[in-house]
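User: Predict aspartate carbamoyltransferase's structure from this.
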Amino acid sequence: MALSSSFTMYEGMTVPKGVVVSARKCSQGIMCCLSSPISQKLGLSKSISACSGDLIRSSFFPNEELFSKNGLLRDGSCCRALETEKAFGLENAIAFSMGEKFQLDDILDAQQFDRDILTAIFKVARDMEGIEKGSSGSQILKGYLMATLFYEPSTRTRLSFESAMKRLGGEVLTTENAREFSSAAKGETLEDTIRTVEGYADIIVIRHFESGAARRAAFTAGIPVINAGDGPGQHPSQALLDVYTIEREIGKLDGIKVGLVGDLANGRTVRSLAYLLSKYQNVKIYFVAPDVVRMKDDIKDYLTSKGVEWEETADLMEVASECDVKHAVVMHPLPRLDEITVDVDSDPRAAYFRQAKNGLYIRMALLKLLLVGW
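Assistant:
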């Protein structure tokens, strides 16, 4: 893949600014395909192709004769050019193509994601919705084993990861309360547990009571690790499903106003969400919490450095008056305990159970991407 500020060489091709090129095997020789929007913007024909050593000339790829010099014609490589939002301002453009390796080895924190990757992950999640709703299921992850290693109680996160794996044809090894019922109770270190578990599985999903535990696990493991919550640290898959839900419910992510309410000092979900929201334009965040549990300075400093507007208050009604009540949605990572009464459930703006279901699609997408790529 190439995404450059000017021109980039990729597999012998010179590509213009913002165009992403990926290569994979095909039997027809070389085919460089341009979708209609990019073709229209560049004033070019939709595609060029070459089979059996015969090249069709194109002004778009001035050095396409290099294909024959570097063996691409002989081994049957296929190149595809895709437009990107960054280059052409196309809202639904995605800069990654099928068959490519996922850009991340592990899912540990929200800072790992940029806007392009988020857009692409959400598109895969939409595809997962279709798989989940289909009657035939999927065998994308057949032969893969996922270990869920949870040192803290969980219902939604653990079960949604396990459901995601099974719906894609994979299998699950699970321990529900590893703090009490694993060798950790005997004093085994996290690192030794991870070294053992990675011998049984292809991917580890870990929830731990200590901040930074997921990163320690990823440093130790030779297989992908997903952080399913590490103490007061982060919960990146929850943040992903939160942003995905906002987009599905409201229809946009730029220009939104978001109120984050509750124990913001120790809430790993809101910390991760704040990081992800900073990827979008003209977002304003309201931190609503008593002084004793207000959002920590590291998040506020990060948002300021990214040019994200934020305000802090202890008055929820003050924030509500600033938001568009008609189009507001109520979200919650659950369990809600006494924070939202059941009377709210019948309001169409109550999105928390739809939000929980969206977690399945996001986690299906993450497992697919980490194990088999785009």
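The first helix runs from residue 36 to 42.
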